[in-house]
Amino acid sequence: MQRYVLTGTPGSGKTSILQCLEEIGCHTVNEAATTVIAQAQALGESEPWSRASFIDDIVALQRRRQLETSGTIQVFDRSPVCTHALTTYLGWPVSAALSDELERVTSERIYEQQVLFVRNLGFVQPTAARRISFQDSLTFEKIHEESYRLFGYDLVDIPAGDLAHRVAQVRSVIGT
């Protein structure tokens, strides 16, 4: 089983790439943080990222999705290493749940060594879950790079460009 991580700054086009991969039959897993935010906002919580349990909610959903996903080749929109980057960006300490999950995914080599790093498009389109400026997204992108390198992953750049070309680049790495 091969599990690839697709990562990058908010608004870089990860979801669009993932949707294209799904259309051609790849097993894909959506970003957990977006789901956690959407569920909390549906219950009336406008900024769930401001509460301490936010990170642990993401970690729990990431783990559950990783354990439940089947298929020979799987592509994940983010991983616990991204959650580490988010924690760093927010200036919060790494929680016990995140630390344990990082240890598990590292020691068990859950994800492939090569991480597909989708580069920014030069802008960020705000959404209900994405309220980051373009300048802040560049800082967040750098923190993601640092986190993945810290945990020993190799970054495969997926530069800005048209969607078809980016999908082809990802497919060349994952072998579909």
UniProtKB/TrEMBL annotation:
Residue ranges of domain NadR/Ttd14 AAA in the record: 3-166
Matching Gene3D superfamilies: P-loop containing nucleotide triphosphate hydrolases
Pfam families: AAA_28 (PF13521)
Name the UniProt record assigns to this protein: ATPase
Lineage, opening ranks: Bacteria, Bacillati, Actinomycetota, Actinomycetes, Propionibacteriales
